[in-house]
Amino acid sequence: MSRGVRSCRDLSRVVLGVLRVANGASALVAPKMLLRRLGVDSKANPAAVYGLRMFGVRTVLIGLDMLSSDDEIRARAVRMAPLIHGSDTVSALVTGVQRDLPRRAAVLATAISGVNVILALLAQRADKPPSRREPAFAEVFGSLPERGGEMLSTKRSVVSNHEPVRPGPEAG
User: What are the boundaries of the region Disordered (predicted)?
Assistant: First the structure.
């Protein structure tokens, strides 16, 4: 695979990787600010700072893997991304349902994680080799009859492997 962005789908991998690095770095550098934005009092919940920093480390590493120039590292990160982001989405949803976060923060966290799932799935599609083109109707069944009703295909039948039937001298 070549380095860089190859397609719109590949762009989703890059965007997801950049978002992961940015969000993870924010969680590492300014966890109290992020907690405040989520409506969590870091003084009343000091363990949340620790948890957010752990999340930050994981998030930065995943983001860097998605941006890696090493095909194997990048491919593994892309394969794992839907599972990671899906579990983040479920976690945010459960946290909201249990009212462990204010409603607005839980909805926002669930929505962000949901967008990440979509980006992860798009990135996964981009990382797969293009599928073999489906054969056209004429490639499978021969050409359609011309005005005179003749089938002029010279290809073997896919279904029966017999020689194609050619119109006799009486046709025409």
Answer: 147-172
Same domain, residue pair 92 and 22? yes
End-to-end CA distance of the chain: give it in Å, rounded. Answer: 54
Q: Specify burial of residue 27 (Cβ count, 10 A radius: 0-12, 13-18, 19+).
A: buried
- Same domain, yes or no: 118 and 172: no
> Can you tell me the distance from the alpha carbon of 34 to that of 24, in angstroms, rounded to the nearest whole number?
11
The pLDDT tens digits of the residues spanning 104-118 come to: 889 999 999 999 999
CA distance 83 to 75: 14
pLDDT, position 47: 93
Domain match, 42 and 93 both: yes
